[in-house]
Amino acid sequence: MYTIFINDLTIYLTKNPPENEQFIEVEDDIQTWLREYWPKVWDTKVNGRLYLQSDNVEALWEALQSMYTIIEAAGGLVTNEEGEVLFIHRLGKWDLPKGKLEEGEDIPTCALREVEEECGLNGHVIDSALPDTYHTYFLKGNPILKRTYWFNMSVSGRPELIPQTEEDITETVWLGKDRWLEVDRNTYPSIRYLLELHRIGHEE
Fold this sequence. Notes:
Elements: E1 2-6, E2 9-14, E3 23-25, H1 30-41, E4 49-53, H2 57-65, E5 69-79, E6 85-90, E7 93-95, E8 98-100, H3 107-119, E9 125-139, E10 142-154, E11 169-175, H4 180-184, H5 189-203
Parallel strand pairs: 1-9, 2-4, 3-4, 5-10
Antiparallel strand pairs: 1-2, 5-8, 6-7, 6-11, 9-10
């Protein structure tokens, strides 16, 4: 199964949609179906999620990617010694630090660099990989599919943070789980998804 985030809509490409969930069946001629129906999907919202059912999910995914310019980025979910997570506030929403890969840069290096630049943090290390996320948007009229590689990171102590204001970041803060509800109310579906994985991982 593949997951794509479009604004506040989460789209799942799957062969077997969950019971009691509404879904759209993709026809065998995937390219024709996408040309006709994909623009309409942008305007569809069913409880914040939509399932696209296909007997050939890989072919659907490849065809969908071919419709976009793909941009790669990387970022981190950083935890300090007190168990708090590092959040940034940018363009009116809570987010996690991330950014685009530079030419010749490997993905883990990009993730560490972006956290350092956006938050003024040093000494953070990668502990493990998180699932990649995909989200779509338009840039100067061109459809973009951004793939973001995510990592669990940690840092000693509770370092002070400095927001990268030139990147429209107004706050960089450490927040404990008792504050995550306010984040959930004003963030992106992809960030909620990563936070839920973090919660589950720390409950096991």
